[in-house]
Amino acid sequence: MLEIDIVTIFPEVARAPLSESIMGRAASTGVVTLRFHDLRQWAEGKHRQVDDEPYGGGPGMVMMPGPFFAAVRELRREGSRVVLMTPQGRRFNQAVARDYAGGEVHHLIVLCGHYEGVDHRVVEALVDDELSIGDYVLTNGAIAAAVFTDAVVRLLPGALGDERSPEVESFSEGENLLEAPCYTRPAEFEGMAVPDVLLSGNHGAIAQWRLEAALVRTFLKRPDLLEDREFSAQEIAILRKWSKELENLIRVKSARCTDPLSGR
Ligand code: ADE
Q1: Per-residue pLDDT at 116
Q2: Would the CB of 85 count as within 6 Å of ligand 1?
Q3: Atom 2 (ligand 1): residue with closest C-alpha?
Q4: Contact, 6 vs 39, CB < 8 A?
Q5: Helix (H, G, I), strand (E, B) or coil at 7
Q6: pLDDT at 52
């Protein structure tokens, strides 16, 4: 069982996307417990100030340490992990999501930065893991917290109706392949037909087609994913087949090539 406390000055921004559909059901069926906290409840003074100007000058405002320290002191317990959403963090990806969903961590406190950044003493003294959801800067860390939470929670046992779906999708365990294209009814739409093999009922042929399509898609769109990947014997066979077809094509075409720039 995983519990997640999200601490932000905009709790509704994180709550909204995590209340609908699969996330809403995961929370209501007890797959996960989500709590959304307004950081200002730990701020002091009449104005409940949470940010101030940066020491040393510069644009924007910096989140003060006091409210974060008070929040973590109240929420933390034995075994809690404190995560800060920040563009300075290590890159969040499916492998990191799997680690958090893996069952070792039972309680997460997710701190959201806003504005220019968070006082560095928060990072040094409170935070176990800084996570970035990508190389761009959001105005609102609660959006990043919602992305992180969604990706982790959907991997928890019982979160998805179909228990197999996390394993067959892009980036799943040991796969690092994009998914093959998918289709649904109608079989023909505005002159575009679904590939015959998917209508054939031949499960072996469908699996082979999907693997080939996944490989070619990954090769064309995300070749970086293939670099760190182990290939199965079946995948090597597919690559060999393509390589032969490509060599044949080049042989036939280059024999007929009349382009003066070709160097022949
Ligand atoms: N806050 C602002 N930008 C962010 C990002 N890219 N990832 C995580 N938190 C952020």
Answers
A1: 86
A2: yes
A3: 138
A4: no
A5: strand
A6: 97
Which pLDDT belongs to residue 262?
59
- The label of the residue with tokens 């933390």 reads 76
d(CA 19, ligand 1 centre) in Å: 21
Give the C-alpha separation, 181 to 226, whole Å: 18
Q: What pLDDT is recorded for position 173?
A: 43
Q: pLDDT value at position 37?
A: 98
Return the structure tokens found at 231.
């290939």
Which atom from ligand 1 is nearest to the alpha carbon of 131?
8
* Ligand 1 site, residue 115, Cβ cutoff 6 A: no
Given a contact cutoff of 8 angstroms between Cβ atoms, the answer to whether 15 and 46 are in contact is no
Q: Compute, in angstroms, the gap from residue 62 CA to the centroid of ligand 1.
A: 15
What pTM does this model have?
0.89
Q: Is 63 in the pocket of ligand 1 (CB under 6 A)?
A: no
pLDDT at site 174: 46
Q: Give residue 134 CA to ligand 1 midpoint distance, Å.
A: 7
Cβ-Cβ contacts under 8 Å for 245 (sequence gap 6 or more): none
Q: What's the pLDDT at 148?
A: 98
Three-state secondary-structure class, residue 14: helix
Q: Determine the residue type at 88.
A: Q
Q: Write down the residue that tokens 């409940």 correspond to.
A: 48
Q: Residue 101 carries which side chain, given as an amino acid letter?
A: A
86, 118, 122: which to mutate for ligand 1, most atoms within 8 A of CB? Answer: 86
Among 129, 138, 147, residue to substitute to test ligand 1 (most atoms within 8 Å of Cβ): 138
Parts of the chain with a pLDDT under 70: 162-175, 260, 262-264
AA letter at 50: V
138 pocket-lining for ligand 1 (C-beta < 6 Å): yes
Locate tokens 């693997």: which residue?
211
What is the Å distance from ligand 1's center to 43 Cα? 23
